[in-house]
């Protein structure tokens, strides 16, 4: 038994070293400026999480979840890793499973885009697709139990697995990169919520550093987070989001509403319109969740301009938009869902020329 314990400890130390080496190789992600008229005296930034090795913000989360499992001695040599995911988290977790020579299974809604399934399989993972998205939690837990594996459970562990105090987390990195900008302490940071881990990290970090930055969480149509936050009711449920990576049919355990200063509900068609508009303005493909972020961030910029308030706003470029070439960027696919982008594109064009956000487009 003692020899086996030594072997497990040695493997765990090797595995932690592999994950930490990946973090060291990945370095940091870029902070892009978004073009706004200089006379507005407002700066808008997007932190580009698409440049991670697995192409999305979820690379940070997957690294933290795997380290959390390793350091709690829940993952050992040969352990099958299991996750419930709509796609990007599972892609990143499959990458880390391959890095550690561990089997990986993602339990996903059957509607998940094919590009993400292909990426999981590219990294050696398997995908178990379920018809009812609300069952992914239970199916993943049962699969892990029956195989003697470990359920990574991003929706429970995201906010506690991330080191929110620093250690080059997304908040520390963001504020370090802003330090030489005209307005280094932003008025607003705008993020979506899928697990709630990113918003929890940012909210805790700004309070720890005594920054006056406010946190806005944008929530897509069909998600439970907005109503849960507004009504302070964690039992709220909803149909679920059509914007991959953010929004949930329930208020997830990792979402900490007390850290959120404001929420903005965003229609699906507005998310897709803003996604396409942002891709054109940045000459860089962005995904649907980035469109949701931008819809909220631009509304806040317009409010600051109307109040004559100089300062900065920061949001996230969450993942590479090329993953959605056959969905969000496909006009026929969008039309099949009944999404009319025209009025939302008109809002964005009006904002671009005037800095005014129409009252009909206000949310939250």
Describe this structure in words.
This protein is α/β, with parallel strands linked by helices. The chain has two domains: 2-17 and 58-159, Rossmann fold, CATH 3.40.50; 23-57 and 168-361, 3-Layer(aba) Sandwich (Rossmann fold), CATH 3.40.50.1100. The chain contains 13 helices and ten strands. The protein has helices spanning 2-26, 58-71, 88-99, 114-122, 136-147, 154-161, 170-178, 197-208, 225-231, 268-282, 288-306, 331-336, 342-354, and strands at 30-34, 42-48, 81-84, 104-109, 126-130, 150-151, 188-192, 214-220, 262-266, 311-317. The chain has a six-stranded mixed sheet with strand order 1-2-10-7-8-9, with helices on both faces. Strands 5-4-3-6 form a four-stranded parallel sheet, with helices on both faces. Helix 2 (58-71) packs across helix 3 (88-99), helix 3 (88-99) runs parallel beside helix 4 (114-122) and helix 10 (268-282) crosses helix 13.
Task: Provide a brief overview of the structure.
The protein is α/β, with parallel strands linked by helices. The chain is 44% helix and 15% strand.
Biggest sheet layout: 6 strands, mixed
Strand content is 5-15%
CATH class descriptor name of the largest domain: Alpha Beta
Quote the distance from N terminus to C terminus.
58 Å
Mean pLDDT reading: 94
Structural class: alpha/beta
The third-level CATH topology of the largest domain is: Rossmann fold
Order of helices and strands: HEEHEHEHEHEHHEHEHEHHEHH
Low-confidence stretches: none
CATH architecture of the largest domain: 3-Layer(aba) Sandwich
Oligomer class? single chain
By DSSP (H or I, 4+ residues per run), the number of helices equals 13
Rg from C-alpha positions? 20 Å
Compute the number of structural domains.
2
* Annotation, overall tally of beta strands: 10
């Amino acid at each position: 038994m003692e020899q086996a314990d030594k072997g497990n400890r040695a493997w765990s130390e090797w595995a932690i070293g592999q994950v930490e080496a990946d973090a060291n190789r990945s370095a940091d992600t870029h902070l892009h400026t978004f073009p706004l008229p200089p006379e507005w005296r407002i700066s808008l930034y997007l932190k580009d999480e698409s440049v991670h090795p697995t192409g999305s913000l979820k690379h940070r989360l997957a690294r933290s979840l795997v380290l959390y499992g390793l350091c709690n001695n829940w993952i050992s040599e040969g352990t099958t890793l299991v996750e419930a995911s709509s796609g990007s988290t599972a892609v990143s977790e499959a990458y880390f499973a391959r890095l550690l020579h561990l089997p990986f299974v993602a339990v996903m809604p059957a509607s998940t885009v094919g590009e993400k399934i292909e990426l999981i399989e590219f990294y050696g993972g398997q995908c178990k697709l379920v018809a009812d998205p609300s069952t992914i939690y239970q199916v993943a837990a049962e699969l892990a139990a029956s195989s003697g594996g470990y359920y990574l459970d991003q929706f429970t562990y995201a906010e506690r697995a991330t080191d929110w105090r620093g250690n080059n987390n997304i908040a520390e990195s963001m504020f370090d990169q802003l330090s030489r900008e005209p307005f280094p302490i932003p008025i607003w940071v705008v993020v979506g919520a899928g697990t709630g881990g990113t918003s929890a990290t940012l909210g805790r970090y700004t309070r720890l550093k005594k920054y006056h930055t406010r946190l806005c969480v944008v929530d897509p149509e069909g998600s439970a987070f907005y109503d849960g936050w507004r009504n302070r009711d964690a039992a709220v449920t909803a149909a679920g989001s059509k914007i991959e990576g953010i929004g949930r049919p329930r208020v997830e355990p990792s979402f900490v509403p007390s850290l959120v200063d404001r929420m903005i509900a965003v229609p699906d068609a507005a998310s897709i319109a803003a996604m396409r508009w942002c891709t054109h303005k940045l000459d860089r493909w962005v995904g649907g969740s980035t469109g949701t972020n931008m819809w909220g961030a631009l509304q806040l910029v317009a409010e600051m301009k109307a109040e004559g308030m100089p300062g900065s706003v920061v949001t996230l470029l969450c993942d590479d938009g090329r993953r959605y070439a056959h969905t969000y960027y496909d006009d026929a696919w969008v039309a099949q869902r009944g999404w009319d982008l025209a009025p939302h594109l008109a809002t964005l064009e009006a904002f671009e020329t005037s800095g005014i956000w129409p009252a009909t487009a206000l949310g939250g």
